[in-house]
Write a structure and sequence with these properties.
Chains A, B: This is SAM-dependent methyltransferase. The structure is a homodimer. Chain A has ten helices and ten strands. By secondary structure, the first copy, chain A, is an alpha/beta fold. Chain A starts with 5 loop residues before the first strand and ends with a helix. At the A-B interface, helix 5, strand 5, helix 6, strand 6 and strand 9 of A face helix 5, strand 5, helix 6, strand 6 and strand 9 of B.
């Protein structure tokens, strides 16, 4: 029997109508073509699929929760593919495989040579980078910075220095309720000319993506970031010099 | 007068019907809402917009070619926004601002505090990373490797060593006619256990994204990559160990 195929299904980043428009129309048809769904959260995935297509019969799918990655879930996943079933992997938000446990299932699918189809959808990393005006030729996403204050300050200084030396944009995230302390640490531990992009509520109606130098951010009240899903981009590298670049 | 807003319009990566389905439906409505288009290539953008909506009146837009970035084009861009016009920025392929000259216009828009809206679309970087099964918590896109053979081999060894030390996925591209020599250089300059993902023709019907260890790639004929748009991902870091990770 031919192996089943794996479809990586992106979901919205925000729970509003604007965000729903950011998904390509082929996603729901692709899900219809699958028999099995592996998801981080069955309840939100069920609700999301219903929002995309109210005629979809949710109970026709076999459901598995990814949650804790253990050998048993990898075995189940692998068995479903070997039974010839098409499997959808769905994230809690955004793109499966990017900062996400789905990645381990995908690695398993690669091991057994199953065909994998990534579908286009919203990624806060990529959307923020596009809108930042920062270097998109060389960038590094590094997830979360350390929580410990001293370690975090050191990490920020190290990021800035690597960014200057390699002309590289660094991208990182934080748990939303820690955004304000993080941004204060960034502002007080970097050079005035370094550029920081603060990208909040991406794809929502309240989306707000702004790049400023540290000296300009210092003039702003940044408390609006409290509890807003935000991604940060730092670029200490040389800025665009029109005549010399091309 | 209120400043115009900037919309970052992604386009297809491949010129086939399958690829067209990867675009969200709201893109064409967003373009309709703009008065001015800045594009890398006017001819392909005109054709692409017509494909998305044959009723669109192409000549209603004011067209500017990005091409060589000089002060004059930045001035023109800035003037259009100050006239209150909504501006679309369109790449030759993929997402504006990512490995793309549109980035300089976006930086200019950030400088004058224009609102910038990145739209969801296909990025070979992100789609390949999703499907690779590699580390999506820590990754570095670095554009092209050096063309000089000795420098390139050194770069490959350096990438592998950084990937192992930092547990980071490195992502890079090559001009399609140089894919085969590049992949040969990778295979002969990395450890047998290092994983390499070769992602070709992303979003096309012929899409082919496979991750294997270097020792497994050695058994394959890789000449099929000649002149196929391809992106490479290298991960020498520790692989998933179910019990210990969560």
């Amino acid at each position: 029997m031919a192996l089943g195929e794996v479809f990586l299904i992106p979901t919205v980043l925000q729970d509003d109508e604007t965000a729903l428009e950011s998904l390509p129309i082929n996603i729901i048809n692709t899900v219809r073509n699958c028999q099995v769904i592996f998801t981080e959260n069955e309840r939100t995935t069920r609700r999301h699929l219903k929002k995309m297509d109210r005629n979809i019969v949710i109970d026709n799918f076999q459901w598995f929760t990814i949650g804790k990655i253990e050998d048993s879930i990898l075995d189940t996943f692998s068995q479903q593919l070997q039974l010839g079933k098409n499997v959808a992997i769905v994230s809690e938000a955004g793109c499966p495989g990017i900062a996400d446990p789905g990645q381990f299932l995908i690695a398993e699918a690669q091991k057994i040579n199953a065909k994998i189809h990534p579908l286009v959808g919203p990624s806060s990393i990529l959307l923020a980078l596009m809108a930042s005006g920062m270097n998109g030729q060389n960038f590094h996403f590094m997830g979360y910075l350390p929580v410990d204050t001293t370690e975090r300050k050191n990490a920020i200084r190290k990021i800035e220095s690597m960014s200057i030396n390699d002309n590289c944009t660094f991208i990182f995230i934080e748990t939303p309720y820690r955004n304000v302390p993080l941004v204060k640490d960034i502002i007080s531990n970097t050079k005035p000319s370094t550029r920081l992009c603060i990208a909040a509520n991406i794809t929502a109606a309240s989306e707000n993506i702004r790049t400023k130098s540290i000296q300009d951010w210092k003039k702003e009240d940044l408390n609006y970031l409290h509890k807003q899903p935000t991604i940060f981009l730092l670029d200490g590298g040389r800025q665009y010099a029109p005549k010399s670049h091309y």
